[in-house]
Amino acid sequence: MDAEPPAGRRRLEDAPPPSEPPAGRRRRREDIPPPVDVEPPSGRRRREDVELPAEAAAPGRRRAPEMPPPPVRRAPAPPPDGSMPPDPRFAEASMPRDPRFADASMPPDPRFAEASMPRDPRFADASMPRDPRNQPRRRPVEQPTDVIPAVPAAHEPEHPDEQPIDGLFEDEYDEYGEYEDYDEDYDAYDEDGYPAEDGAEPPAEEPPAKKPRKKRKRAIGWIAAVLVLVLLSGGAYFGYQKIFGYADFDGPGEGDALVQIEQGDTTSAIGAKLTDAGVVASSRAFVKAGAENTALSKIQQGYYLLRQHMSGEGAVDLITSPAARVGRLEIRPYTQFDDITQPGGKVTPGVFSLMSKASCATLNGKSTCIPVEELRKTVADADLKAFGAPEWALADAGKALSKDKRLEGLIAPGVYDVKPGWTATELITDLVKQSADTIQAAGLTAQNTGPGMSPYQTLIIASLIEREAIKPDFGKISRVIYNRLAQRIRLQLDSTVNYVLDRPTLLTKPEDRAKAGPYNTYANYGLPPTPIAVPSMDAIKAAVSPTPGDWAYFVKCEKDGHSCFAVTNDQHNENRHLAEQRGVI
Hints:
There is one protein chain. The protein is mostly helical. It is built from 17 helices and 11 strands. The protein is about 30% helix and about 5% strand. A 3-stranded antiparallel beta sheet has the order 1-2-3, covered by helices on one side.
């Protein structure tokens, strides 16, 4: 809308430019523009232009020092009616007339009629002394005018609904007013907080500025409190351990308890298992007792037979003794299922005897041993597939001399854990499954076999290598077997004859070799029907990958077990003569 708002109701955002401050509105002193020589309208003079008496000034506020007014020429006295002389800047010819305000373009506002509002007594002549800050500037084209004094600021506004400017901004900015005092108080101090060199002191009526409170004391208090809590907690824990300690039994214990220790178990894990089995009262009792026992850190996996309600020290002593471990089954290479009788009459136990011995333990007065005959019968009657034997071994394993030997060669060497109390089927099944994994890990599978051989035939060759040579000669022995099979030469191995006789000697007598049978490689061509011993992983690898060479003969020629190899029979006879001279054969 083009109509100009009333002079007494103008909002701050609608205020004119700083050159002409709005009537009835007061701005902060730092924002006041330089005064102009245009006299504000009567009745609407700004309160900044009026100098307040000293008693009316706000307490605690310091005013700028009074400055003597500059000498100016007095303007002609205003007309008796109180009007102002015409301003030459607004002469009619100074600028073109705005067509928007042409005569009769807008009806006069009755609010601004001469008689619509009484004259403001605050702006009567000589009511207040002139403010030197509002002296008009000298301009060549303007004549300075007198400043019309106004009544003191304590006079209430004429209109009750019109709020003074002081009330609008006082609440928002008064909170900064108190800092004006501090600004002058600190004028007498240098940057370090000490009095300035001129020795100026703060005003007597105002107290010196307080130093800011340091928070370091509060932080030290918190640190001290935390330290006290830590000390109290540590003392409480130490007192608890000292007074209450940990649960522990007394004495050697009673009854039997079977505990399994697995690979990677720590001392704490072992203590927890013993606690669950009722061996010790608490895991801490076991750990504390074994803290200085180095043998406890070397304990191996397996089953351990202990007693219930043992002290922690007693449990440590028993579990580290050889008598505590039960169910340990160790099968070495070269072993066969049946026992072997040595020349001196000593019997080397076979796989059946080793399994039976490993199953033996006494739990609460009852034996858990499985007899050899029960084990033989279980192997003879059971399905090899149910035991976990490899698929490639099921058909050929049935060619054994007897059904109880069908697993010959399918048991891998190693140490096994047999749980006392297992049945024969559980024991054999666990043994066969673990062996199948070991054989496969050695590189013998349905897809990876010896040159021109099936997986089961490769296993037979591995058993022959194990019985005929020592590890350094495995590769060459394997090559001799492959070459003789390729040249259709009888293998003539004493180990196959002795397998039937259950004898470990490397040599055979003529009467032994005259015996007929599928394992007599002096009389038969090719491989024996089944493996003749437990092959090692090295023997299996040699059977899968024989050492390249043309050897067709070998004989043990050194007492440490090494063999001498030959390509022709004449060379072989020379090696035999050397072996006789050395006393090997």
